[in-house]
Amino acid sequence: MTLTVGVDVGGTSVRAGVVNGDGTVLDTARTPTPPSEAALETAVAGVVSTLAGRHRIAAVGLALAGFITPDRRVVRFAPHLSWRDAPVADRLGSRIGLPVVVEHDANAAALAERHFGAASGAATAVFVALGTGIGSALLLDGVLYRGAFGVAPELGHLQVVPDGRPCPCGKTGCWERYCSGTALATTAVELMARDPGQSPLLSRLAAGDPRRVTGQGVAAAAREGDPVACAAMEDLARWLGVGLALVADVFDPELVVIGGGVSESAPLFLDEAREHYASLLTGAGRRPLARIRTAQLGEAAAVVGAAQLARDLVTGATRSGARSGLRRTPRAGK
Ligand SMILES: [Zn+2]
Q1: What is the CA(204)–ligand 1 centre distance, in A?
Q2: CA 186 to centroid of ligand 1, rounded, Å
Q3: How far apart, in whole angstroms, are the C-alpha atoms of residue 281 and residue 268?
Q4: pLDDT tens digits, residue range 20-70?
Q5: Ligand 1 centre distance from Cα of residue 168 (Å)
Q6: Which of 61, 143, 171, 334 could form a disulfide with 309 if both were Cys (CB 3.0 to 4.6 A apart)?
């Protein structure tokens, strides 16, 4: 059976996995993400070599948060990594002697859910990963939509509140400032400041420093019934419904998949988000509703999706939306 490697190149660690044709991760390797461009490529080549020493590998797929060219070979810009207009697929390919493909991590995770998880069989679907921010992907008629310049979609930066919370992207009031793990913490801290003493659990967590309040901490406190944490969860549910209704007015999906770390707390917000979504759609009550489900593959999704793209590279399959450019094999000295 053909085995490929998927590599999730994150801001703090490089995580790689050997994946088979069923989407099962057979083996893993990881290393910290170094700051320089050359060291980063050495780190990625290193984890791949480690796995290639233990398995017969046919191709490699990288997943990272950043702008990737539509041919999936060049990293234009990645906010948490050192690559800038870097021909990563060609350089790594000639270095490790295997075909390499690069994909946005949200796209890779979406592909994994489509092949092996919550979006199996879906043709038109929206993927929203709620973590530090919002990672998003769009599957339109079975193909990932990436826009004219490879930058779409950036659903997390739709402005939902004019002059709202500042966003690292340079704008204000972006959706992800109200609907993410970070947003959960921000909202909880705002609510605590407004009404001190309402939240013994979160006050203990903060211990005088609101920066200690994390989205995970708020979710845990909400599970314990903490009133402020529950209110922050309700706020997140409302903003999830608001944003999904906007997105659905543009794309009219059959399915919405909610992933990311926050999705592990879905029982605390998903039903309520569905109600907000259904009531805020244009023509509410008079049109079919998209199903809204949680992702199934968890943290492994980007690795599995990148490995699947690598598989398409060697089998010539187009079912992941691969274009002809994908089938080129890397050549040294290009
Ligand atoms: Zn933004």
Answers
A1: 31
A2: 15
A3: 22
A4: 999 999 999 999 999 999 999 999 999 999 999 999 999 999 999 999 998
A5: 6
A6: 61
